[in-house]
Each structure stands twice: as C-alpha cells, then as structure tokens.
Amino acid sequence: MRDFARQLSSSTTRQVFDGSPRSHRLRHLHAATAYQAPRKRTFFSSNTALQQVSSAGKCDSINDRLLSQKRKPVRSPAGKSSLRRVAVEAQRSRESAFRNKDAIRNTEGSNCVTAVSVADQFQMDEVIRILRSHGFPIDPDGTGFDSDQVIHTRGVNNGDIFVFPSGSLVAWSLPEDVVSDLAMKTLLPAAINPHMDQMEMEDLEYTEDAKRDNSSIKGDIITLGTKSDARVDAASQARVEITFAKIAFSSGLARSTKLAVLETMLGKYFESTRTIPTLLSRGSKLPFSRSFMLQKTGELLELRAQLNHYSELTDSLPDLFWDSKHELGLEGYYDQVGRALDVGVRIKTLNEKMDYAQEIASILRQTMSEKHSVHLEWIIIILIAVEVGFELRREWKERRARLAKATRENI
Q1: What would the pLDDT profile of 370-403 be if each residue is shown by its tens digit?
Q2: Which H or E run includes 221?
C-alpha cells in the first residue's frame, strides 16, 4: 500500500513540472476532509424514516412529521365523566344487541318459540270454530290428542301453533307480532276472564339436529332431533314424533307462562297491601273498609285456588301425556322444561309468598272481626242506655203521679 502511494505521488509531481495540463488533484481516502467527520447514524441504516431524513432536499416539515409520528400520544387524565361515558357506551351496545335480537326474532321463519297467556281459560270448541273460520287446519299431523287438552294447527311458514285450555298459546317459528295478534285479537272471543293488562309472554330458541333422534333443552335453547330414515313412511312418522316433542315442550312452556301470570297478580296484591305492616308497626288503626278487607281475602283465595286446585301447574305430569307412548319420552321433555325454567322452585316460592299473604289476610279478618265486635258492643250499650232512659222516664212519671195524688189528698 505504501509503494502504491509513493508511485502515485511521484507520477503526479512529474506531470506538474513537465508542463502538461494540470488535472484535478487526487485525494487519498484517508486524507479526505469530508470523511474525517464522524459517521451519521443513518449511514448503514435500513430504516425508511431515517433514510427520508438523510435524503437531500427534504424540508424541516418532514422532520417535524417524523417526530410527530414517533412521539407517543399523551394520554389525557381520566375525567370525572369517564364512568358515565363507559356506562353510556355499554347502554348503546346493549340497545344495539337488543335491536338486532328483535330484528332476528321478528324476521320471517326465525327459530323462536313464543308462549303467551291471555286468559284464565279457553273454550276449546270456540277455539276450533274460530281457527277453522280463518282457514287454519286442525291437527294437520294426526297426533290424535283430544281437543279438550290441546289444539294443534299450522300457520305461515309452516309454523306450529298449540292452544291449551289454560288460556295459553305457544307458537313455533312465527313472528312475535303475529303471535300477539292471534292470541289477543283472533282468539279473544274464546277467552274466559281475559287479562290483557296482565298478559305474560315468554320465548325460547330452538334448533334442529338431523344427527339426533331425541330432543333436549339446555339453557334457553331447545334442540329437536330430526333424524329419520329415507323411507317415506319413516319420514312421516318422524314428523309426527317431532310434533309430539313440540307439544311436550310447549306444554311445559305454557305452564311457565301461566305461572308468571300468577306471580304478577301476587305482586300486585302485595303492592296493594304493603302499607298494612307499616301501619301495624306504628300502632295506627287500619283505615280500610269491610269491603276492601273482603276483597283482598277473596283475591288471595282465588290465587291459591288457581295455583293448587283449578289448574295443572302443580301436577308432575298433565293428563295430556298419560296415554302417550313411553318410547316418545314426552314426560322427560316436559320435566326438562320445568327444570330449565325453575318451575318447581317458583311454585314453592309462590306458595311461601301466599303463606305470608295469608297472614296479612288473617290480620285483616281479625281487624274486621274486632271492628264488628266493637260495633255490636256499641249497639248493645246504646240499647241499654235507651232502656235505662225509658226506665228513668217511667220512674219519673210514677213519682210525679204519686206526688200529685198526695197533694190532692192533703187538700
């Protein structure tokens, strides 16, 4: 390397002194002033942003832009309304989810099971007449159930409709507005003691599984087993069995809806008598009339009778399934719905609440008896006072007569 540098410098000197045209002065790499400066950090960098900074002709705005891109955004401190903002966002997302759910539910052909209770009872003969007048087929699958126990028909989208004598209606794959219109308007003439102000509606979802030959319910989703053979008679028999399963699930769901009506009625009963314990604790008199006390006692007796005597709510198995085949497992489907919807627990809780309401009713009866006894006592006191008054008057008249007679004798 030293020999090469020595030869290069001597050749250059000869060219200068020989008078030949002077060329550009050669510089050694190690003696270059530009390269004696320290290397920039972008010399061997593959970073695109740094290469853009080192490129010529870039203005300071690019540097500012790069710095703003690198700089982390400053997090503003949480304000006082941060929790409120989170709650608002959660409410919006919840409302959006509900709107999507309602849209899916109201769509035509959605897999939804809707139960509604609108009356104490249905006149089943009148229900059949109304359905036939509107073009609904009665028992399209030939289940053979007695019309006094359940009426099966089919509406739009082949949606199954089951009407029970307990005043409940259960529809499969029908929009909610169609079910409400059918129960509250179409079948209203057949309703006994309708309670539109206390109408209850419950809904579940269902799916069909072609790989299963039995049905079940888990949570709020019913799974119908639709497995069948390729034969025509086997397919029709499978359809009838699916209808049987739907009747069993519908019966359990109608039972839960009817129980919800009684729960609502008992809640209103407690609301109307909630001031009684407070008045008793203060030592105040109950400002209720005899008619009010008799009315509340009658309401409670009616509720207890509807729960335990006049309906099949407390029965382990309705009469509807006594004659059904054991292989169909309808009793198991009915029990599954009861367990999924906590019907047994709700009936027990309802009876316990009625026991408490019975104590309130007994206090009302006792108060009414005391008032009646006090009323009778005052009547007796007044009668005695009147009798005493008449006796005093008689004694006064007799004394006056004796005095008058004695005066005449003295004269």
Answers
A1: 888 888 999 999 999 999 999 999 999 998 888 8
A2: strand 221-225
Residues 169-222 pLDDT 10s: 999 999 989 999 999 999 999 999 898 888 899 999 999 888 888 889 988 899
Beta-sheet pairing, 191-194 with 119-122: antiparallel
Residues 6+ apart with CB under 8 A from 362: none
The pair phi, psi for residue 224, each rounded to 5°, is -100, 125
Cα 408 to Cα 406: distance, rounded to the nearest angstrom: 5
CA distance 29 to 373: 128
Is residue 278 within 8 A of residue 367, CB to CB? The reply is no
Give, for 300, the enclosing helix (H) or strand (E): helix 290-308
Residue at 388: amino acid letter: V
CA distance 389 to 395: 10
d(CA 372, CA 367): 8
Q: Which two tokens stand for residue 267?
A: 């809640």
Structure tokens at 39: 């290397």
- Cα–Cα distance, 92 to 85 (Å, whole number): 11
User: How far is it, in rounded angstroms, from Cα 158 to Cα 175?
Assistant: 12
Q: What angle, 0 to 180 degrees and rounded to 10, lies between the N-to-C axes of helices 290-308 and 232-272?
A: 160
Answer whether 131's CB lies under 8 Å from 201's CB: no
Strand partners, 232: none
Report whether 179 contacts 170 (CB < 8 A): no
Q: How far apart are CA 145 and CA 330, in angstroms?
A: 13
